[in-house]
Design goal:
Layout (H helix, E strand, L loop, with lengths): L2 H9 L2 H10 L3 H23 L2 H14 L8 H5 L2 H15 L3 H12 L3 H26 L3 H9 L10 H10 L3 H15 L4
Helix pairs in contact: 1-8, 2-3, 3-7, 3-8, 3-10, 4-9, 6-8, 7-8, 7-10
Length: 193
């Protein structure tokens, strides 16, 4: 199942127009930004799915909070503050402190402003998890089934490499802390002359 295409199909029409209107974008820019944002979110989720522990947490979160009901009123969800608050939390879980950099990459990739990219990312994140939740429920999927859906997605968009960049960011969300710890380790234990 191609989750990205399924979501884009459902967003076409009034929901996409509303996303565009909220960000001052025409139809072509809106579609490009949504495509890039979905690539980014799915690439980040694919990175989560490569760790058994994080994949299990994702499965639990989808089962508990994302049953797919958001898909029943996408036009309402698109303009909702609740959706955006939920989206900001989801992006924080996926990308950590790198959420702003992901928005920058989506903006560059799709030719929209960083603020528009950030708004679209926070709007689409709960919709992506809603689609996963719907697939989980309808297919009776366990964590392994959910992982298979995610890892079966195409990473990246065309030749832009956005998916690879975002996956790298998601994988390095704790890299700063690790670098700091490694630096301290070297400082204390590296000089034995």
């Amino acid at each position: 199942m191609d989750i990205k295409q399924a979501i884009l199909d459902q967003l076409s029409g009034a929901a996409a127009e509303k996303i565009g209107a909220q960000n001052g974008l025409d139809g072509a820019k809106t579609n490009s930004a949504m495509d890039s944002a979905l690539t980014a979110i799915l690439s980040g989720l694919q990175q989560e799915a490569t760790s058994k522990k994080r994949a299990s947490k994702l499965d639990t979160a989808v089962a508990a909070d994302h049953d797919g009901s958001i898909l029943e009123d996408l036009v309402g969800a698109v303009g909702s503050d609740t959706t955006k608050l939920d989206g900001a939390k989801i992006l924080g879980h996926i990308f950590g402190s790198k959420s702003g950099e992901v928005a920058d990459e989506v903006a560059k990739d799709s030719g929209v402003s960083t603020s528009a990219a950030g708004d679209i990312l926070t709007t689409l994140a709960p919709i992506v998890l809603g689609q996963l939740g719907k697939s989980k429920k309808s297919g009776g999927l366990d964590a392994g089934g959910l992982i298979n859906i995610l890892l079966g997605q195409k990473s990246g968009q065309g030749d832009s490499g956005l998916g690879d960049i975002v996956s790298g960011m998601a994988g390095k969300k704790n890299a700063g802390l690790m670098a700091l710890l490694f630096g301290l380790f070297k400082m204390f234990f590296g000089k034995k002359s």
